[in-house]
Amino acid sequence: MLLLASLLEATAQIQKLNNVGSIMQQAITALSHQPIVSIAVAAPVGGLYDYLAGPAMGAVRGSLVMVPFGGRQLPGIVMGPAKGHLPPAKLREVALVIKLPPLSDAMVQFIERVSAWTMAPLGAVVKMVLSQPAAFGRPPQQKFYRLATKHDKKRLTAARKLVLEHLCNPDLLNDGDFAASIIAACGISQAVLNGMETAGLLKVDLVSADRPPPVPLCDCNHLALTDDQQDAARQLRDAIGQGFRVNLLDGVTGSGKTEVYFEAVEATIKAGKQVLILLPEIALSSAWRARFAARFGVAPVEWHSDISPGQKRKSWRFILQGRVSVVVGARSALFLPFPKLGLIIVDEEHEHAFKQEDQVIYQARDMAVLRGQLDQLPVILASATPSLESWVNAGKTGLPPRYRYLALPKRVQNAQLPIITAINLRKTPPERGRWLAPPLVEAISARLEVGEQTLLFLNRRGFAPLTLCGACGVKLTCPNCDSWMVAHRLAGLMRCHHCGHESRPSNDCSVCGSKDSMQACGPGVERLAEEVLWRFPDARFAILSSDTVATPKAANAFIQSVSEGEVDIIIGTQMAAKGHHFPYLTLVGVVDADLGLAGGDLRAAERTFQMLSQVAGRAGRESRAGIAMLQTLESDNPVLSSLIAGDRDAFLAQEATARLTAGMPPFGRLAAIIITSPREDRLYQAMQQLTASRPHFDLVKIYGPAIAPFGFLRGKHRARLLISADKSVNIQNILEDWLGPIKLASSVRVQIDIDPYSFL
Q: What is the pLDDT of residues 341-358, one digit of tens each?
C-alpha cells in the first residue's frame, strides 16, 4: 500500500511539472508572437534598444514610454518596429506607456537629425527633449466645488450662505470654483467647505491643480509702425501658414525689430499655432517681457535655467498638449515638444550664446532653421549685426539667396544712430595707474553736468585678470586649469572663470615667500568702478556683470533703476550689450576696444565688430544724440575703421572674402575633435591612436592632434584636432569612419564639435 501511495504521489508531481512546462512553453510562444519595438532611451547612449511591446502594443512612432534600463526605469520614445535580431526571450518589456500625446513626427525627425548632425548619442538628444520626467505622471489634484441639486435650508449658516451665493455667479467656470478662490472670495475657512461637502450641499470633483496660461490677446495695443516696419511686418504676416522660409530681419539698433516680429506672432496665434522665441539672455530680458505683456495683455511662458522645477513641469506638459501659445526661452527651449508649432524667432541671432559647448554641442540658430524645415514653418532671424552665415545665406555676397532679406535701416521716432569715434591711446593715454583716457573723462563730465547717463564698457569681470609676484614674477593660477585666478575684491575672493575654483587672496607670495609682493595687473569692471569713484565722487554708478546682477529679479531692479535715471554711470561687461533701452543714455565709452581681436579665433573680428556695434547702439536711442568713444591702440584696425565709418556691409564683405580664401565657414566645413582625460599618459596614448589611423582625402585637411591652448581644464588634460573640408564633403561620415573602430581607454573622452566657435 505504501509503495502504491508513493507511486501515485510521484505520478502527480510529474503531472504538475508537465503542466508547468506547458505553461512556460505557452509563455515562450506568446513572447515569440509579441511585437518588438525600438526605443530611444533618455540616456547618453547611442542607437536604439529593442523591447517587447507589452503595454505599448499598437503604440505609434513618437509615443512616450517608461522602460527598464540597467537597474532603473528611464523614459524613452517609440521610434518604430524593431529591426534587430535578438530572440524575444532575451528582451525586456516596456514598463508602461506615458499617458500624454505622442511627439509629432517632425519632432522625432528633429531628434534624429540633431543627433546625426552633431554626432552626439541619440539618447543624449532624447534626454534634452524628455527633460521633465515629473511631467509624465498625473498632475497634482485639487477639489473643484459645485452646487448640489438640493439644499437643506435648516443647515445653512451665514458662512455657508456666502459660499452658495458665490457659486451662483454665472461667470464661474463650469458653474463651480476651487477651494482657494472660494475661501478668498467669501472670507471663510476650509472647514466650512469640508462641512458642506459632508452635508451634501456641495458636489466635489478632483481636477488637475495646474492651470494653463492665458492666451495672448490679439487686435489690441498696436503701435504705429513706420513705412519700413509696415512693409517688413506685412511680409512676415503673409508667411504664416505658407510653409518653410527663413527671413533675415536686419534692423539697426533701435529700429523696432521686436514690434515688427510681434506682428508675425499675432498672425500665428490667430492661426491657432504655437510660437517659439529664442533670446540669448532671457533671464535678463525684463524690458522685452514688459513689451510683450503690453502688446498682448499677458506674459509669455518662459523657459530657462532660472524657472522653478514646478513651473517647468507644468509648462512642458501644457506645451505638449498644445495649450501654450507663446514660449520665450533660451537655446534649450528649441527641444520643447511643440505639437503645432507655427513660427520660430531667433532674436539677436548673431549671439554666440546660442552655441551649446557641452554634452550635445549644437548651434541653436542653425538647429532652429532645421526645425523650421522639418515642421514646414517660417523662421525669423533678427539682428542689428547679422552673423556672416546669415548674411551669406541672404545672398549679400553674390551667392544665390537662401533666406529672404528684410531691412529696417532707420531708428524709430526720428532718433539718430550714435556717432562713433576712436581715442588713440598712443597719443592720449590715461595717467599712470588709470584706465580712462582724458577725452573720455571730459565727455563723462559733460554728461554729468546735463543729467545724462554714461555706459563704460569693459568685457572683464572682477577687479583684475592677473595677480603676480613683484619679486619672482610667478603668476597666480588655478590648481585645476591653465588659467589665471581673477581678483574679485567685492567678494573678497580669487576666482577661476573656467572651473569656478575660489580661494582667499594673500599679499604674500607662496613660491618665493616675499611679503606684500602680490600685485594686481590690468583692469576689470570693479577696478574701473574704483577709478570712477575717484574721478567722479558725486556720481551715482552701478556695475552690470554676472557677479553683481545674477538673477532675473536683480536684473529687473537694475534695469528699472537705470531707466528711471537713478544711475549716472553704468560700468558693464557684455551683459550691457544685450538689447537694453535706456532713454537717458547718451555716451558709451569702450575702455579696451582691442580686447577681442587677439588670438586664433576665426570669428574674432566678427565677434568684436558685433559686440562693439551692439554696445555703441545703446547710446542716443531717443531724442538725445548719442556718441560712442572707443579707446584703442590700433585705431587703423579694419574692424574699428569699419565701425567708425558706420560701414557694416563693407566689413562683412571683407570678412567674407577672407573666409572664402581660407575655405573657412560658411564657405567650407570645419569640425573639432576634443580629447580629454584625467591622466596625461592616457591622453598622449589616445593622440597616438588617432594619428596612426588618420584618413587621407584630397578635400580634407587635418591639423593636430596638439595640446589645447587650455591644456589642463577642470582637472582634465586636453588635446584638440581640427578638420577642415570642402563644402561638398560629408564631414560626419569621415569622422564616423575614422573614430568608430578606435578603442580608447575608458578614462578618455572624445567630443566632436561640428562648426566650432571655441578654439581653446
A: 999 999 999 999 999 998
